[in-house]
Amino acid sequence: MYYLCFDVGGTITKCAVVTPNYEIVAKSSFPTEISRGGNDLLARMIKKIKETEKYYPLSGVAVSSPGIVDCETGTVVFANERGKEFRGVNYRKAIREEAGLNCWADNDANCFAWAETLHNDCDFLVVTVGTGIGGAIVFDGEVYRGANNSAGAFGQMRITDAAKWEEVASTKSLVDEARKYYPGITDGEDIFARYDRKEEKAIMVVERFYRYLATGLVNLAYIFNPRKILIGGGVTNRAAFQGELLAAVRKIAHPDYFGKTAIEISRYRNDGGAVGALVHYLKREKKIKKSL
Known about the structure:
Blueprint: E1 2-8, E2 12-18, E3 24-31, H1 38-52, E4 58-65, E5 68-70, E6 75-78, H2 91-99, E7 103-107, H3 108-116, E8 124-129, E9 133-139, E10 142-143, H4 166-169, H5 171-178, H6 188-196, H7 200-224, E11 228-232, H8 241-252, H9 255-258, E12 262-265, H10 272-291
Parallel strand pairs: 1-4, 4-7, 8-11, 11-12
Antiparallel strand pairs: 1-2, 2-3, 5-6, 8-9, 9-10
C-alpha cells in the first residue's frame, strides 16, 4: 500500500511515495509555476499521479499546500498576493475526478506540525521560516484550526508599526535587507557566509534578523507557554542556527514568563510537508470510518 504525497511550495512542488508507516520510498519534484494558474498545476499533479501508478499501486493522494485550506473540501480559500493564483484550487475534487483516487489536503505549516505529532506527545507550536513565516498550534495531538482554518498565521503578527513578523524575520526579508548593502546577494547562504567571515555589514543584517525572529518567538512563548516551539525551513540547515537563535532569545526573554519552553529544530526538515500530509490524510480516513 502506497500514498503519493505532494508538498506544494511557492517555487518547487515535492512529491514522495510514502507507506502507511511513513517510510518514504521514492522522491521527485517539479517547478510549481503557479503563475500559470491553478488548473495548470492540478493538471501536472494528475500527470504525476498517473506516472507514479505505473510503478506503485496508490491508495490515495495527500497534499500539503500554501494558503488557508478548507480541509473538508480540499480547497484553498485564501492565499496572499505572492501566491494569489492558489486561491480556489480544489485538490480533492480534481484528483478524485481526474485520477480516481481519494485525496485530502491541508495547509503546509499544519502538515509540518502533523508530522511532528508522530514524535512529540506534548503541546507545541511550529514556526516555519522561508519566503514568509508560517505556523501551527498543536494541542492534545491535534492541530488547532481556529474559526476559519487560519489559526497559526504567526507571520501576520505585527512586530513593528510598519511591519509584519514575516516582513522582518523571514529568509526573504533577510536577503532583501542584505541587498541594501550587497546588491549581488542571491540567497541566505551568501549572507551567512559573509557573517561567518565577520563582515561588519553582514553582522548587522544577520543580528537584525535574529533579533526580530527572537522577538516573535518570545511573544509566542508568553502567549501559549508551550513545552516546545519547533522551527522548520531551509535556514535550520545552518549548523550554528539553533545556538545563534537561542542567544538572541536569551537577550530579551523574561525567564519566569518564558519558563521551560524549549526551542528546537524540527525533526523532518524537508520531508515534513509530505509526511505530515499523510498523517492528516490517515487521520481523516480514520475519523470517517469511526463515524460509519
